[in-house]
Amino acid sequence: MGFKHDYPSYSSLIYKLARCRNFEPVKTLLHSIKHHNIRCEEALFIGLIRHYGKSQLPEEAIDLFQQMTSFNCVRTLQSFNTLLNVLVDNGRLEKANEMFKCASKMGFKPNPVSFTVMIKGWLERGEWEQARRVFNGMLERGVEPSVVTYNCLVGYLCKKGDLDRAKGMLDDMAKKGQKPNAVTYSLLMGGLCSLDKYNEAKKMMFDMEYRGSTYRMMVDGFCRVEDFEGGLKLLNAMLASEHCPRLETFCCLIRGLAKCGKVDDVCFVLEAMEKKKMRFDLHSWEVLVREAFGEDHGSASSLMTELISAHQ
Known about the structure:
Elements: H1 7-19, H2 23-35, H3 42-54, H4 58-67, H5 77-89, H6 93-101, H7 112-124, H8 128-140, H9 147-159, H10 163-175, H11 182-194, H12 198-211, H13 215-224, H14 228-240, H15 247-259, H16 263-275, H17 282-293, H18 297-311
Keywords: Repeat
PPR repeats: 76-110, 111-145, 146-180, 211-245, 246-280
Family: Belongs to the PPR family. P subfamily.
């Protein structure tokens, strides 16, 4: 049976090639799509733009975005935001800023995601004032910041040790009717713990409990951004306040610390588990080791041997 010249067949093959970073055949297939006048969905181009970004090919992502209309595909704010994010993640902040400023000319009205991507980009470069200008511009245009927007700002201030301004962001959120989430509190907790303000951190824990947040969600928040040391500090504060994490929380933290090769920290967490009379079963250990090391069996075996000897 020959190849079907229809959208599902083309898109399936293109996705597979892009995942393998085999982009030359992708271009050939795109040319064939155009030749056969096959109407494409925006999702295909969004996926390709993301894969170009992961492959550190931002120029290819820009070219594809500019060609989308020639494929009889309407560009929406979703593909625009995807491109902005790819540019920011690949160190092309100036180009992203140029496109952001031209959004209205291209027929796009930036939404909270658009502004947040730009704020993230400026903060990653350490440009607080620029990020703040984007934030203020957001408010001036009547675009409501999302909790993710605030988390970017709070996270940056916490890393800089400016906890007063970071906590001030919570007041700003409340005024605008935006509720902090577990990640917001995780960032603040990490900032407090990094400054050894454990009493204040402990007080915030009780506030969070009152507001319905959980410690597991906070530690998971640290793990999601791969800040396992921050998660460990939060675990310390939890134990000091006589709260016991769930087994899944311990597993998440150990997995991250193991990936970083932090044997002493892994042992500390294991000892904390033992004091709480919590242990992994064999299956949990197998999953943990597999997720932490993937196919690197040598590293897995080496670290497991070291852990066993250190924990005896």
